[in-house]
Amino acid sequence: MRKTKYPVYVLSKGRYDKCKTAMFLEKDEVDYKLVVEIQEYEEYAKRFDKSRIIVLPKESTGRGAIPVRNFIWQHSIDNGHERHWELDDNMHMVYRLWKGKRVPCNSFPAIRACEDFTDRYENIAISGLNYSFAIPWNLPAFYLNVHVYSFMLIRNDLTYRWRGEWNADTDLCLQVLSGGWCTVLLNAFMCAKNRTMKGKGGNTERYQGDGRLKMARALERQWPGVVKTRRRFGRPQHYIHRNWRNFDTQLIRKKGIEFAEDTEYGLKVKQVADEIVSPKVKKIMTEFNSKNER
């Protein structure tokens, strides 16, 4: 298994038979820890190596995701890390955005690229990968000071923590941005994630019925004037006023920063092309390689 700079944690509940995130990390040979509740340990241990599983203490069990997320944060601190990765359990692969195309790639280079970029700056609190269902053309390499969900690299010495019951990822991003920190959402690499309410486990049951309306209203009460509830995509959804543009803190570059020697992080376009299944994408990659070999 290949070691990332910062520890990778996968929070999982009720998905022992199909924890997709852990499965693709295994395939990509990325070192990680799977965090589960004690009553589900035996089921997860049937599918995943016991050395990879962290069992939650009783006080963090059966109380929703927030105590688990804060347990992960403290676990990383206790083990001497400056940051930690926290990944949802319903993602199944990573893409490299290349010339407007989403090209499947190994997740290790994506993680290392995000770590390296984040460490170049003094004031990034949270960074991570965008969702692959974002429109893939004409995107910048990253967005500054917006939400970061599901595939998150979090700075450990922040005074903020996960809180509430609903939309805790949006709330955490709003906390750090309101405190003058920056967030970075990478488009250069993207994660493929199941859409909300698809598949059992996780928070799917909480979103049933009027769950999405409760979720949006709860965040609106936490952030009056900043968050509004609207109907979007045929369902109730929270909306950030002025689309996050009120948060304008700029990145501060560290002095004397050293760049990684391999800026491709071991990811070669030619190597990626060999793994492509799609004939259309494979043709594009092959043509690119031919031009560069002349």
Give a short summary of the structure.
By secondary structure, the chain is an alpha/beta fold.
Walk me through what this model shows.
It is a single chain. The protein has helices at 20-27, 41-47, 65-78, 107-118, 168-178, 211-222, 269-274, 279-293; strands spanning 8-11, 33-36, 53-55, 83-87, 91-98, 101-105, 124-131, 142-144, 151-155, 182-193, 227-232, 235-240. It is built from 8 helices and 12 strands. Strand 2 (33-36), helix 2 and strand 3 (53-55) form a beta-alpha-beta unit. The mean pLDDT is 84. The protein is globular and about 55 Å long.
> Oligomeric state of the chains?
single chain
Over the alpha carbons, how many angstroms does the gyration radius reach? 19 Å
Average pLDDT, to the nearest integer? 84
Report the span from N to C terminus. 36 Å
Strand content: 15-25%
What structural class do helix, strand and pairing data support? alpha/beta
Q: Which descriptor suits the 3D outline? A: globular
Enumerate how many helices there are, as a single number: 8
**Poorly predicted ranges (pLDDT <50, ≥5 residues)?**
none
Total strand count, please?
12
Helix content: 25-40%
Order of helices and strands: EHEHEHEEEHEEEHEHEEHH
The biggest beta sheet reads: 10 strands, mixed
